[in-house]
Amino acid sequence: MAPSEDHPAGVYDIIGLGFGPANLAVAGALLEQPRETCPISVNKSLFIERYHEFKWHPGMLLPGTRMQIRRVQFHVDHTLKLRGNNTSFLKDLATLRSPQSPITFIAYLHAQNRLVDFINRGCITPTRKEYSDYLAYVARYVQGQGIKVAYGENVIAIEEGCEGTVQVHSRVLATGETRVRRARNLIVSPGGSPSFPRCIQTILPHPRIIHSSEYLSSVEPMLATMKAATRSLNIAVVGAGQSAVEVLLNLNSRLTSMGKSADREHNLHLIVRGGSLRPSDGGPFANQVYNPEYVDIMYGLPSESRRKVIAEHKDTNYGAVNPRTLESLYEVMYDQKVDRDIAGRGGNALPMTGAYITIRNYSNVSSAEISKHPLQASTEINSLSLIFQNTLTQDFSETTYDAIICATGYERNSWLKLLKASSLGRHFGLRATSSDKTHLSVDRDFGVAAEKNGDCVVPIMNGKSGIFKVAANGRNGHSQTLDMRNNADGIHAPYASTETKVSDTLYISRHYRLLPLPTADHEFIPKIYLQGCAEETHGLSETLLSVIGIRAGEMVEDLCSNY
User: Fold this and answer.
1) What distance in Å separates the CA atoms of residue 341 and residue 277, rounded to the nearest whole number?
2) What percent of the chain has pLDDT over 70?
């Protein structure tokens, strides 16, 4: 798709940062709002996306993968058997919000003339390739309905604009040109940035250290640089989750295709800190934590209780592997052992498997460095040395690798860095000097902040009545209180005459809106929404696809009702 943004005069009603599934769902929900009652103009809505066309995790579109829609992961069924699955295509961009929506997965299948074929397939889980095509189909649809998307632009800053607006600064990647746009509302959906172990970060960038998010586009060029090797290759995969195991299996297949080197197998090491790979809990009762109504439950809990619930259900999403994928890995590893036993009997040569998988458990990567190691007489490349500490014995060991793939998850704090560097941050008690450990809290915790901050002006929520008060200590030591009526989420309130202090806590409404603190100058008018960033207040489904359609509808309704 070519860039579709023009340069209209005036101010956008909404600018969305990013155009992945989250903001794609918002665009669809916005189109379905009744035009006669919705004050947000579709023609004044813009989304800014760094890719030059719609893409969704292109680095992990591995062959044969199926979706697990409750979380942004997938599995490979190497046995090719149809088995029960607790995930469903119905958790798409719109079905749970509006089953009759034109952007449901069923509507996509019908438009492609594949609905009956999908039903006959006998499995409710789409392949990752098909789901990616569905998302691209919806992207084309909403653009055809008037939604504007500026592709190929990277947002570099946001600032406070005039007349109650937000300024969004972006750089056109192809030309380096900087564009500045204004909006009355901002929806921040940054997605995740690849996360590397801290010790490995010190030797980045390196052509043979890649993140799983870039695996598919990087693995072939990486392996091509090592095909001239006259010895066996050593490759490490760091991680204990779904992506790590799928990368491991794919690498095993690729190295097997390359064949042995000098009659020696290539070595694949899976580096895990725990004692073993753990199966994800995919049961229907555990998955209730991803139900839409569970967001209300999580948001209503005290912060300590939310942390306990997230920890209790962590293995449904983090550091765990789909049981079918575990079975596939075990079959591969067992078959390799059988081959070795057969080949070793009577002095036979090793079978042409090409690669051998080893799981290095209880291994924590404590150090990484680059050294020189010859692949052959006329070629030298950098080899990668990892020092491991055994988490049980505390002993250290060192292994040299030719390549490292890190399936070590994602960071989701780019929005915070953007806000900290912005003049907007002060409205939320946030400065460039604020702690990197800044966290989110629910709206009712405003009162707690008031007690902790002393003379800091903060709102105090009074039960569920929607009445807020601001407490401020004047210079004469007398407290001042102002009664304030809130809107749907308790946002707008008169501003007192005391500046807010720098805070390590930001507050977010049930409908995903950042809540500004009172300031000395004027009421902060623009609304800033977060998507995919509020797991600690809204629960485990926040970074996933499970409630994406319902969340989009709630945000759009909140925007329209408080515009």
Assistant:
1) 25
2) 77
Is residue 374 reached through a cis peptide bond, with omega within 30 degrees of 0 on the bond before it? no
CA–CA dist 530, 441 (Å, integer): 13
Single-letter code of the amino acid located at 207: P
E-strand ranges in 8-138 read: 14-17, 45-49, 65-68, 73-76
Element (DSSP H or E) covering residue 385:
strand 379-390
Edge-to-edge strands of the sheet including 178-183?
A: 153-160, 166-172, 178-183
Q: Are 383 and 371 in contact (CB under 8 A)?
A: yes
Domains of the chain: 194-278+320-410 (3.50.50.60), 414-531 (no CATH)
74 has which bridge partners? 67
pTM over 0.85: no
Window from 7-16, 353-362, 420-429 with minimum mean pLDDT: 7-16
Measure Cα distances from 308 to 84, 111, 313, 372, 531 in Å.
30, 44, 9, 47, 22
Tell me how far CA of residue 185 lies from CA of 304, 405, 470, 524, in angstroms. 32, 39, 25, 11
Per-residue model confidence as pLDDT tens digits over 497-539:
334 455 688 999 999 999 988 654 567 789 999 999 999 999 9
**Which residue, 57, 184, 191, 56, is CA-closest to 530?**
191
CA distances, 492 to each of 127, 414, 497, 498, 514 (Å)? 45, 26, 16, 17, 12
Give the residue among 11, 345, 33 at the shortest CA–CA distance from 168.
Answer: 11
Q: Give the span between the Cα atoms of 236 and 505, in whole angstroms.
A: 38
Strands 505-508 and 439-442: parallel
- The identity of residue 316, as a single letter, is T
**For the chain, what is the radius of gyration of the CA atoms?**
26
CB 498 within 8 A of CB 453: no
Tokens of 188: 């921040």
Taking CA atoms, 365 is separated from 281, 362, 383, 384, 408, in Å, by 27, 10, 16, 12, 12
* pLDDT of 97: 94
Mean pLDDT of the chain: 81
Closest to 439 (Cα-Cα) out of 525, 528, 551, 514: 514
Round to whole Å and give the CA distance between 205 and 548: 34
* pLDDT of 70 above 60: no
Which pLDDT does position 530 carry in this prediction?
Answer: 96
Across the range 130-148, mean pLDDT stands at: 95
* Distance of alpha carbon 163 from alpha carbon 240, whole angstroms: 50
DSSP 183-244: ESEEEE----EE---HHHHTT-S-TTEEEGGGHHHHHHHHHHTTTT-SS--EEEEE-SSHHH
- What is the pLDDT averaged over residues 338-361? 78
Of 6-20, 411-425, 473-487, least confident by mean pLDDT is 473-487
d(CA 272, CA 239): 6
